[in-house]
Amino acid sequence: MCRRVRNKEPGMMDSAELDLWLDRVKSWGEPGGVVSTDGLRDTCKCLGALGSILRRLHVAMTTWERPAAIMRHLPNIGQFLGRLCHNPAVLTCDDTCCVLLSCLTALCTDNPQEDIERRAATWAQKMLRHVIHGPSGNSVSKAMGYLPSDQSKLALEKIIHALSEDLDQLQQDRRLKTRQAQPHTLHQLSELCLPLVTLPAASAVVEKLLLAGLEGKTELSVLFLETVARMQRQLYPNKAVTAPVSLSPAALCALWTLHPPSLEQEVLDMVETVTLHRPFMGTEDMKTLVCSRGLPMACVLQPTVNKVTREIFRQVLQQSSGSPSVLKLLRVFNECFILEISKMQGEGPRLLHLTYDVQQLPLVHLLILHPAGLSKPTCQDHLKNICRTVQTVQSPGCQVTWTQVTQAGVCQRKPGINCPPESWLVLVQFGWWYSEACRLLLLSPVPPQSCLQYLACYHLPTSPEQQQGFMTCIHDVASTLHGLLPKIHPKSHDLLYAVSANQQPDFPARRAVIGQLLMLFLLHSVGGYRIADDILNMVVSEQDAVTRLAVLLDTIEENSVGQKTGESFSWIYNNKTSAMLQVISSLQLSIQEQFHSSKETDRPELDDLRCRCDKVKQSMQNYL
To answer: Is the entire prediction scored with pTM above 0.85?
Structure first.
């Protein structure tokens, strides 16, 4: 039977008490040898008391902080723990084994200050590996009937559980301030968890370490953070050899806050994906990609992550000279960010205030409103207010209230609007108003001045002296295209004349807007589908079926083609839809022939285009 021992001061342990238990443990069997049946029976009877002693021992070990101090207070602790590590009954008892693992972990240190600490750490790590993998001779599989695979799984679960309990206790002690944690405790635990990072079962421990490091402002192992970041990135290309750990948004936020290089790599990897590897990804697919990586939610949870992310986007956009792919990604990311903010009830104003400069908030409040469902006059007035707000923000001597911003004559007008870089960066993030401005230009009998000003400010933010000529050009093209909208058989030379008279090669801003207007004309005109090939030739200079198809799909996806408002006759709409489906199929056939001849059929961008075509076709066929 298990002998009762006299307890000392609660939570403490002395060498005499430990020696009494060591004598008992020795009677159960020799380390590495066969444990007798009586020894197993005696062990099982003492498991409850043994668990209590181990818990008190663990508290004492953490109180003494350094392994050298532990060894001085308890010289025989190595014999005691080592014999328990070879006892099958102890290893198969969940509670007792978890506390045993915690005691071994307390002897591990990554910065040994004495030789005894170095030897203690080496021995403790050897015992931990022994518990996980099992000995070669008297193993649990022989003593208790476990298979080796079952033993490894059981031991792994126990060590993960032990680490998780240690972290919970550490956080509880820190909050209650019952004792001072060791300076390197979290750092040591993160080093110890390195082999576990790749295991899905250890994801809870990894997350607790990250959150504890963020909450306690304690430096975790750089190697641990790099390993977690690397395993997280393996999720994206789907090339991970082992199942990577999928972290929660809070854990990702902690990782990117504690390890800024991983945040930079995350953003740049996203940019590389949508610009190089999958440049023809659809908007909805891009939203799925961005949200699946957890970055928008992390930006909502942690202002530091949000600030760094937007600065990286700004630099990438500047270095790419306003690349359309980067702009599209920035718009999609901002839309996902706004969506996450909308889920935080009552926190929207505060989060926007943390994201944008106070001078930009009036502009953000206008841009954040989506034009869907608004009438044409309302959208025109809203675009006018956007332009006025941009002009007000850039005028230092014009201090006005929010109500005054929406009224005419706030600041003395000058020829054109000089849009500062900060305001322009906010402007381009809300892409839905750009699409709405182009649509209103084409569908309005008289091109609205507010739409022209918005596009001029968008494309020529720092060149107000060129904006008047830009607006005159776009006004003429939009008026000509609007007059051709009801024609059943429009002529290509009519469009070519309107475009060639204004689309000068020295003005890329004009070419960009005119291209948008031509694609909208293809969708909204009565007979534009009859000259679809000619319109695509005007918009896309190179004879590349992939680019032509991508431009066509972008326009269809960004505009509600299914709405029959504005169409004269439903039979014309049906003919248009059938013809557009034929254009898409023809471009697909050209792409297949192009890449079949070059034997480059295995390309991700082709898969993206194929999926987008199938979705668009299905959507358009629903209206036939």
So the answer is: no
